[in-house]
TrEMBL record, chain A:
Protein keywords: ATP synthesis, Cell membrane, CF(0), Coiled coil, Hydrogen ion transport, Ion transport, Membrane, Transmembrane, Transmembrane helix, Transport
Protein name (Swiss-Prot/TrEMBL): ATP synthase subunit b
Membrane topology: Single-pass membrane protein
MF terms (GO), sorted A to Z: proton-transporting ATP synthase activity, rotational mechanism; proton-transporting ATPase activity, rotational mechanism
Coiled-coil stretches: 51-99
Spans traversing the lipid bilayer: 6-26
Pfam families the record matches: ATP-synt_B
Taxonomic lineage from the root: Bacteria, Pseudomonadati, Pseudomonadota, Gammaproteobacteria, Alteromonadales
Top-rank taxon, per record: Bacteria
Main location: membrane
Residues making up the signal peptide according to the UniProt record: none
Function field: Component of the F(0) channel, it forms part of the peripheral stalk, linking F(1) to F(0). The b'-subunit is a diverged and duplicated form of b found in plants and photosynthetic bacteria. F(1)F(0) ATP synthase produces ATP from ADP in the presence of a proton or sodium gradient. F-type ATPases consist of two structural domains, F(1) containing the extramembraneous catalytic core and F(0) containing the membrane proton channel, linked together by a central stalk and a peripheral stalk. During catalysis, ATP synthesis in the catalytic domain of F(1) is coupled via a rotary mechanism of the central stalk subunits to proton translocation.
Any single GO CC term annotated in Swiss-Prot or TrEMBL for this entry: endomembrane system
Subcellular localization: Cell membrane; Endomembrane system
């Protein structure tokens, strides 16, 4: 082995190369690597978060759907009850109307009958007077005998 | 065999294990080792710098993906071993890992390819061409790297523990009695020196041996092709493993230097 100035030359080259590498080669490359690692880590964390969010949203959606179903069922129920009530009410009203109309009819019929009877009675009185006039063949003083006529009318 | 029958196997191997050298003695410089080393270091920095300039935290391109895989791997290794805060350790580990990986990879270049290319381009006779392209099979290169790491170990030991704390660590363990402090100091100094030595020699030994076997295989004639393939396939393990071990031990040693007892 002959050791000579080659060793010194190599040592100098070594020092220069290491300094160059330390100043201009290592920092940008390791910086890029670490930056990318951070980006990837962030991305993975974000995707994890998104997956969790999605799960939560799905749970929420399911819960809301369930609630909506319950609400819809209760609304339908209420509507059915309301309908039944309306039907009942309407039926009641119709019954009342019917009774009212019937009552009015009855009352009218009654009035009409009374009136007809009154007229009939008057006519009978007139006929009775006329019959009596014919029987007596003389004129009866209407004024003098009106009390008898009235009595007759009342008896009819 | 490259240079004809005039070379014996020993001469062939010795030739291939000789560096392209300028200067004499200690002042000599191995142009091939240092040249390839610096070239491969520049390849590493050019590729990684081009990615760093366009680095985006959005969708990365294919090259950025590849570079980020390496950076992420080194970053994980550093973070699993070194728990302090130090902006130097990670880029240092990245440089060591990729640079050594590239330098080791020169082991896969067939041993005669580069000399023949030079011969073909320049017309120099093959016997005059010296080209040993695996920088980490040159102890100068591995010791250069280990020395850099060693300086950092000493620097951070003193910076974190102070001179007194560092000296205390060297003298008061493993034996607690004051009369044994000199023994402790010798033991701890050996431990301390063993770190860069083992770093450098492990890398050098593995790659030098690998290169030597490639050269031996190149001398056995036509059967070298399947054997060469097997040995090259085996280096799929050796080359990244040695780069990884060098990086990992650097991190461990620096992490020990930061620990205050």
């Amino acid at each position: 082995m002959d050791i000579n100035m080659t060793l010194v030359g190599q040592l100098i080259a070594f020092v220069v190369f290491v300094i160059f590498c330390m100043k201009y080669v290592w920092p940008p490359i390791i910086g890029a690597i670490e930056e990318r690692q951070a980006t990837i880590a962030d991305g993975l964390a974000a995707s994890d978060r998104a997956a969790k969010d999605l799960e939560l949203a799905q749970e929420k959606a399911t819960a809301q759907l369930k609630e909506a179903k319950v609400q819809a069922a209760s609304i339908v129920d209420a509507a059915k009850k309301h309908e039944a009530k309306i039907v009942e009410e309407t039926a009641g009203k119709a019954q009342a109307e019917k009774e009212r109309i019937l009552a009015t009819g009855h009352a009218e019929i009654e009035t009409e009958r009374n009136r007809a009877r009154e007229e009939l009675r008057k006519e009978v009185a007139i006929l009775a007077v006329a019959g009596a006039e014919k029987i007596l063949e003389r004129s009866i003083d209407g004024a003098a005998h009106s009390d008898i006529l009235d009595k007759l009318v009342a008896e009819l | 065999m490259s240079s004809g029958a005039v070379l014996t196997s020993q001469e062939y191997i010795t030739h291939h294990l000789s560096n392209l050298k300028v200067g004499e003695g200690f002042w000599a410089v191995h142009l091939d080792s240092l040249g390839w080393s610096v070239f491969l270091g520049l390849v590493f920095l050019t590729i990684f710098r081009s990615v760093a300039k366009k680095a985006t935290s959005g969708v990365p391109g294919k090259l950025q993906c590849a570079v980020e895989m390496v950076v992420g791997f080194v970053d994980d290794s550093v973070k699993s071993t070194f728990h302090g805060k130090n902006a130097l350790i990670a880029p240092l580990s990245l440089t060591i890992f990729v640079w050594i990986l590239l330098m080791n990879s020169m082991d896969w270049v067939p041993v005669d390819l580069l000399p023949h290319l030079i011969h073909w381009v320049t017309g120099m006779p093959l016997g005059d061409i010296y080209m040993k392209p695996v920088p980490t099979a040159d102890p100068n290169i591995t010791f250069g790297l280990a020395l850099g790491v060693f300086i950092l170990i000493i620097y951070y030991s003193i910076k974190v523990k102070g001179v007194g704390g560092f000296m205390k660590e060297l003298t008061t363990q493993p034996f607690g009695h004051w009369s044994l402090y000199p023994v402790n100091f010798i033991l701890e100094t050996v431990t301390m020196l063993a770190r860069p030595l083992s770093l450098a020699l492990r890398l050098f030994g593995n790659l030098y041996a690998g290169e030597l076997i490639f050269l031996l295989i190149a001398t056995i004639g036509v059967f070298q092709l399947p054997v060469h393939f097997l040995w090259a396939a085996f280096h799929l393990l050796v080359i990244p493993l040695q780069a990884f071990i060098f990086m990992m031990l650097t991190i461990v040693y620096l992490s020990l230097a930061h620990e205050d007892h």
